[in-house]
């Protein structure tokens, strides 16, 4: 069935955050034609049961294994029929109709293939996120960041550009992005070689080969950012493995 906007959340043991995400997502999309899918990657903490009991309007697709981030989102490729498709993390909180704003902006700009909103912490501070293609020097600077961003991190996040206006970017974060559904399907979704991490930078790079990716600050979302790969050794290894795959694919470092 056709919808103006479809959205997908991939979950894996997200019971602590998914309730607020769904509550605010439905609150701020009630005036647009929006259909939400949730792909659960073998949660064992009650996440799918919570969704089924409290948000039956969401289409829940339970997987028999943990597919990872990109492959989880790719489950939707044969199912979605919409103008735009939103990739949404299970720790996003909305305080406005960012989905409607982003789809309206893409309606007005047919040459844009993907849009990234302004992403803030719950207290309103901007999150410092890469907007240029990942390079080793940027990733090291990000990993070693202090209280104030240094020169390399400022360059990576384009902090010295005017970010109060829309601007073309090389790298959109996968915690919340909107892409034209036809383009997402044509690119065959996220590259399956990444279990998690770097699949968003990879997708942005693919989009920019045929279209444009734009940072759109008029749409704002809040992200409960845990930076789990800095504290979890297993996730740190996955992050490192994905980094090597990215640099190998794009022949850059």
Describe what you observe in this structure.
This protein has a single domain (3-132, 162-227), classed as Alpha-Beta Complex (Spore Coat Polysaccharide Biosynthesis Protein SpsA, Chain A). It is globular, with a radius of gyration of 17 Å. Helix content is 34%, strand content 21%. 40% of the residues are buried. With 253 residues, the chain is an alpha/beta fold. Strands 1, 2, 3, 4, 5, 6, 7, 8 and 9 form a nine-stranded mixed β-sheet that branches.
What is this structure's SSE topology?
Blueprint: E1 3-11, H1 18-27, E2 34-40, H2 47-54, E3 59-62, H3 69-74, E4 82-88, E5 92-93, H4 98-108, E6 114-120, H5 136-143, H6 151-156, E7 167-168, E8 176-180, H7 181-186, H8 199-210, E9 213-223, H9 233-250
Contiguous uncertain segments of 5+ residues: none
The assigned structural class equals alpha/beta
Q: Which fold name is given in CATH as the topology?
A: Spore Coat Polysaccharide Biosynthesis Protein SpsA, Chain A
Name of the CATH homologous superfamily = Spore Coat Polysaccharide Biosynthesis Protein SpsA, Chain A
Strand content: 15-25%
Straight-line distance between termini:
43 Å
CATH architecture: Alpha-Beta Complex
Radius of gyration: 17 Å
SSE arrangement, N to C: EHEHEHEEHEHHEEHHEH
Number of strands: 9
Overall CATH class: Alpha Beta
Count every helix, treating DSSP H or I runs of 4 or more residues as helices: 9
User: What global shape is seen?
Assistant: globular
Main sheet attributes: strand count, strand direction, barrel closure: 9 strands, mixed
Mean pLDDT: 95
Bin the helical content: 25-40%
- How many distinct domains? 1
């Amino acid at each position: 069935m056709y919808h103006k906007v479809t959205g997908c959340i991939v979950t894996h043991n997200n019971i602590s955050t998914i309730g607020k995400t769904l509550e605010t997502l439905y609150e701020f999309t009630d005036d647009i034609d929006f259909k939400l899918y949730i792909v659960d990657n073998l949660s064992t903490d009650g996440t799918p049961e919570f969704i089924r009991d409290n948000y039956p309007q969401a289409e829940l697709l339970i997987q028999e294994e943990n597919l990872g981030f990109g492959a989880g989102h790719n489950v939707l490729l044969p199912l979605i029929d919409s103008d735009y498709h939103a990739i949404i993390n299970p720790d996003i909180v909305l305080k406005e109709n960012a989905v409607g704003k982003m789809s309206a902006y893409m309606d007005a700009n047919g040459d844009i293939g993907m849009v990234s909103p302004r992403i803030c912490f719950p207290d309103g501070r901007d999150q410092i996120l890469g907007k240029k293609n990942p390079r080793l020097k940027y990733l090291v600077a990000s990993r070693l960041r202090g209280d104030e961003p240094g020169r390399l991190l400022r360059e990576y996040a384009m902090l010295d550009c005017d970010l109060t206006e829309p601007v073309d970017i090389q790298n959109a974060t996968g915690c919340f992005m909107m892409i034209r559904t036809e383009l997402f399907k044509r690119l065959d979704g996220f590259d399956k070689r990444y279990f998690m991490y770097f699949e968003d930078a990879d997708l942005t790079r693919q989009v920019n080969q045929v279209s444009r990716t734009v940072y759109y600050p008029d749409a704002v979302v809040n992200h409960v950012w845990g930076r789990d790969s800095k504290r979890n050794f297993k996730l740190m290894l996955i992050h490192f493995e994905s980094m090597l795959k990215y640099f190998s694919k794009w022949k850059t470092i």
